[in-house]
Amino acid sequence: MKIKTNDKVKITTGKDKGKSGKVTRVVAADSKVVVEGLNVVKKHIKSGKDSGKGQRIEVAMPLRVSNVMLVCPNCSKETRVEYMILESGEKHRICKKCKQTIDSKVKDK
Fold this sequence. Notes:
Blueprint: E1 8-11, E2 20-27, E3 32-35, E4 40-45, E5 55-60, E6 63-64, E7 68-71, E8 78-79, E9 81-85, E10 91-95
């Protein structure tokens, strides 16, 4: 998957279109990501012995990966991701617009 935890993404479709946030969790099996503070729904918690009173809480729900775009930390634009394999065999993500690495290990191409 081209989007990882702690990446900044911008939502391209849906009720939160145009908003951006940080990815808190990646569900690779379902091709979904959870973005901090976006796609929030109210969830009802039933009362019980341990939890006390019933309540409504707000929870960020997963979004499909196809509905978000990565924001490059270097050029601050929404971009697609390409991969580059270095001579040492390491694989790095590259911004399609500015050609800089997105990963924090290597800063230049």
